[in-house]
Amino acid sequence: MLDKIYGSPSRYVQGKDLLKRAGKYIKPYGEKLLVLADETVQEICGDDLIKQLEEDGFDISKVTFNGECSMKEIERVSKIGEEDEVDAVLGVGTGKALDTSKAVAEELSVYMLIFNTLASSDAPTSGLSVIYTEDGEVEKYQFYDKNPDLVMNDTKIISQGPPHMLASGISDALATLIEARATREAHGENMHGGKPTIAGYAIAEKCEETLFQYGIQAYAANKEKIVTPALEAVVEANTLLSGLGFENGGIAGAHAIHNGLSALHGDIHDMSHGEKVAYGIVAQLILENRPIDELERYIDFMLKLDLPITMEALHLDEASDDDLRKVAELAVDPDDTMTNMPFKATADDVVDAIKAVDVYVKDFQKRK
């Protein structure tokens, strides 16, 4: 019998212009830091953060992230950290860069620190990384004994980011309650390998409530590059509430379909994690045969956020039946999270659901 398990980061800090104050929150974790960020993030804020930390007395090893959270990249960065005898790894950026920094910190047995620059996913708070092949296909989930020691969100930096990435994060967070509900109904496992907790489910519920209450306002604020209470609320929902909710509540069909979509190449490969999850959300709701009012509540909300929930918008319009079959076979792999659905979904079911998303959304648009 599985135990209930709940996990979370040790400390979460969010605020406007947090970059200027980051040093005081990082100080308890040592003075020698490996700072990992890609070239774009270095230009946006990474170099400024390093400069501020050096002024605060930290010894920095600056490493440029190569773009893919693969075992090869993790080994490369870990070697640098080992040679420099760092006290902590500070991941700066979002998504794959942060997942790589977590993997490196685990490999080196040092503190795991996160400075998030986009509210585009719930990766920053989680105690796991999604590992990809060098070609960008999902290879596995890699789990750690702990969550990050420190997670920081500078809402000023996040407000300057592309609005579609905030919308992507809202979509990723929107999957939280939907998948936690399926996991609970299936008596499935959460991401810690235990049974979901009451706390995890309650956080998932609050996450969704916050998104529907403030999501449209936050998206508008991001377009104007301003920090508002609505944006602050959604940044917290996208990062903290969604992170705690999915990890402790469990994930199911929406993310399994996302993982299946990662097998396709072409323009869809350039779509963000949350944009592909958006399509997976509607597909899961269709698989569950949810009432039309519920289904259309999500469709309407996601369309207002300009999320790609038609086959054309997701660059699936030229995908062959063989392509969709490949997606579906991966989605129902017994090692993936489709097993947390409260019924057995076959590859045929998933193919039909993927096609039905396009049909249902187009029908909704015509009627509106």
Describe the model.
- The protein has 368 residues and is of the alpha/beta class.
- It has two domains: 12-159, Rossmann fold; 163-367, Dehydroquinate synthase-like - alpha domain (Dehydroquinate synthase-like, alpha domain).
- Helix content is 53%, strand content 12%.
- The chain is built from 13 helices and eight strands.
- It has helices at 22-26, 39-55, 71-84, 95-108, 155-159, 163-185, 198-223, 229-249, 253-261, 273-287, 292-304, 321-331, 347-367, and strands at 12-15, 32-37, 59-64, 88-93, 111-116, 128-132, 138-143, 150-154.
- The strands form two sheets. Strands 1-8-5-4-2-3 form a six-stranded parallel beta sheet, sandwiched between helices. A two-stranded antiparallel ribbon has the order 6-7.
- α4 links the parallel β4 (88-93) and β5 (111-116).
- α6 runs parallel beside α10 and α10 (273-287) packs across α13 (347-367).
- The longest helix has 26 residues, at 198-223.
- The N and C termini lie far apart (49 Å).
- The model has no long low-confidence stretch (mean pLDDT 96).
- Residues 9-154 form the Alcohol dehydrogenase iron-type/glycerol dehydrogenase GldA domain.
- Keywords: Metal-binding, NAD, Oxidoreductase, Zinc.
- It comes from Natronobacillus azotifigens.
- Its cofactor is Zn(2+).
- GO terms for molecular function: glycerol dehydrogenase (NAD+) activity; metal ion binding.
Identify the notable features of this structure and list them briefly:
single chain, 368 residues, alpha/beta, Dehydroquinate synthase-like, alpha domain, 2 domains, 6-stranded parallel beta sheet, 8 strands, Glycerol_DH, NAD
